[in-house]
Amino acid sequence: MKVLIGILIALLVGFGALKIYQHWKMVEEQNTLEQKAAAGAHVDPRALQGLPWQLDLKLSEAQQAGPEAFKRFVEQLRSGRFPDVKDPRLAWIELDYVVAISSEDPLKAKEIFREVKKRTPEDSPIYPRIKQLSRTYD
Q1: Domain locations in the chain?
Q2: What is the pTM of this model?
Q3: Phi and psi at residue 49, to the nearest 5°
Q4: Is 60 exposed, middle or buried, given 0-12, 13-18 or 19+ CB atoms closer than 10 A?
Q5: Which tens digits make up the pLDDT trace of 60-90?
Q6: In whole angstroms, what is the distance from residue 114 CA to residue 120 CA?
Q7: For the purposes of burial, counting CB atoms within 10 Å of the CB of 19, is it exposed (0-12), middle (13-18) or buried (19 or more)?
């Protein structure tokens, strides 16, 4: 009987140690994700790849001209008129557009946000911004 109780205690201690180890790994992964998010929160959009330098001036002009001009520019990008424009910079521009139109057309803003979120992997440099905006647009 003493042997059986000893085996049972050893099994319980082993099971408890396993659960503590699993919890420790989960907390460590969460901390790693939070550190990555904090590091990516200060991304300079001009440093992102995916926008040829020739279009940088057109982008800033469209943003300054107002929501309608910005909308036309984004639609040109999305239609494939400029095939060199790619993620992550394209996604960042679309997120800027989402923020710009959110007061005028919230349904369209949410639709575009969902599309960007769907195609953006978690290891992307713009994912922290998506995570931040998801509170509003999800």
Answers
A1: 1-40, 45-137
A2: 0.68
A3: -80, 155
A4: exposed
A5: 898 898 888 888 888 888 888 878 888 888 8
A6: 10
A7: exposed
